[in-house]
Specification:
Layout: H1 11-17, H2 19-30, E1 31-32, E2 37-38, E3 54-58, H3 60-77, E4 81-85, H4 86-89, E5 101-106, H5 112-123, E6 127-132, H6 138-142, E7 145-148, H7 161-180, H8 186-207, H9 210-214, H10 217-221, E8 225-230, H11 234-249, E9 252-257, E10 274-278, H12 285-297, E11 301-306, H13 308-313, E12 319-322, H14 331-350
Parallel strand pairs: 3-4, 3-5, 5-6, 6-7, 8-9, 8-10, 10-11, 11-12
Antiparallel strand pairs: 1-2
Helix pairs in contact: 2-7, 2-8, 3-7, 3-11, 7-8, 8-14, 11-14
Bound molecules: 6-O-phosphono-alpha-D-glucopyranose (G6P).
């Protein structure tokens, strides 16, 4: 397959823009559109009803997709999830249950630590599920069941569209698990599925915020440190936001659970520290808003990512980026878009090599 940048300046820009389309393609593999229900792809069927636990492992951005999925599997399927980065998972020697499921997540399907964890889990008698983007990869070949993502070829070293496609796949799997385990009713499932079907359209709207986000690049380019805060499923997206910025702009950034702010990171906050707050107007909004006030009181420059209702309830910020209103379930996929754009435009403003950042490799095939 030959991939080119088309009219885009960088592969990363193209891959960010492609997300509504490839997330749509991925969802189409997992949703029976006519029935409004989850239907796993042919050959990828799995029955979650008998599981006591689920193990998830991955590296980098794929690990953050796993972190979001933990919230979903636990909430929608009441399935306890054990998750760790692959380089820690197997050395931790967690007690693994033979016959239970381990899900490995990997864009390339070749990441050394993820593959080693797969083999470790397999040797312990676990079933192996793999959420992978490259169907011919080693991880896909060695898994018992492959849950494909349909992101297409991803060239930019910093993962973008592969991440949202991993989330889409994991969202579908969590709903399927909820149905298998009789936690979700048919009506619950239909509601969750319809919010997934609506998602690509909302992602298009989120992409329209690009010029607004680009205007923030000079502020971020000047910063030595940036904090990203979120609660619930917005917390892993805060981690991903910080990772994206670090990877391509080389600015030090940290993602934090908003509630942990006062246990350390608030000591860093002054007028030179931009603080990106991810806070859709959900039941956790008020809590995050009060963390935001703590930042504002110390002169921190707040960039709030929220929806219209959140914006109406927020205090003063440096910038408030208003995303379309979405069902809370899908907000991590939607909020991934502005944090990618923010990292991208900051890096472009600074003139770094966006697609090939220094010291990083697309796929880390050595431990
Ligand atoms: C590298 C890439 C990241 C990616 C990670 C895991 O660090 O730069 O973008 O998230 O590897 O890669 P995988 O192919 O296993 O998803």
């Amino acid at each position: 397959v030959i991939v080119d940048k088309g009219s885009y300046r960088h592969f990363m820009a193209k891959e960010i823009a492609e997300q509504p389309e490839v997330v749509g393609h991925t969802l189409a593999r997992y949703i029976d559109m006519a029935a409004g229900r989850i239907r796993l792809p042919h050959g990828s069927d799995f029955d979650f009803s008998k599981l006591d636990r689920l193990a998830i492992s991955a590296c980098g951005t794929a690990y953050y997709a796993g972190l979001v999925a933990r919230y979903w599997f636990e909430k929608f399927a009441r399935l306890p999830v054990d998750i760790d980065i692959a380089s820690e998972f197997r050395y931790r020697e967690p007690p693994l249950v033979p016959g239970s499921l381990a899900i490995l997540i990997s864009q390339s399907g070749e990441t050394a630590d993820t593959l080693a964890t797969l083999r470790h889990c397999k040797a312990q008698g676990m079933k192996i599920g793999a959420v992978v983007n490259v169907p011919t990869s080693t991880i896909a070949r060695e898994a018992d069941v492959v849950f494909p993502t349909v992101a297409g070829v991803e060239v930019g070293v910093a993962s973008t569209k592969a991440f949202t496609c991993q989330l889409a796949t994991l969202a579908a799997l969590a709903i399927k698990a909820g149905r298998d385990r009789k936690v979700l009713s048919e009506t619950d499932e239909a509601k969750l599925v319809s919010s997934l079907i609506e998602l690509p359209r909302l992602m298009v709207e989120a992409l329209h915020l690009e010029s607004e986000i680009e205007r923030l690049a000079p502020v971020f380019a000047k910063a030595d440190d940036v904090l990203y805060l979120g609660r619930g499923t917005s917390f892993p997206i805060a981690l991903e936001g910080a990772l994206k910025l670090k990877e391509i702009s080389y600015i030090h950034a940290e993602g934090y659970a908003a509630g942990e702010l006062k246990h350390g990171p608030i000591a860093l906050v002054d007028e030179n520290v931009p603080v990106v707050v991810l806070a859709p107007f959900d039941p956790l909004f008020e809590k995050t808003a009060s963390n935001m006030q703590e930042v504002a009181a110390r002169g921190g420059k707040i960039v709030l990512l929220t929806d219209e209702e959140g914006a109406a309830h927020a205090g003063e910020t440096l910038a408030t980026i208003v995303l379309p209103k979405a069902f809370a379930f899908v907000s991590p996929l939607l909020y991934a878009v502005p944090i990618q754009l923010l990292a991208y435009h900051t890096a472009v403003f600074m003139g770094t090599d966006v697609d090939q950042p220094r010291n990083l490799a697309k796929s880390v095939t050595v431990e």
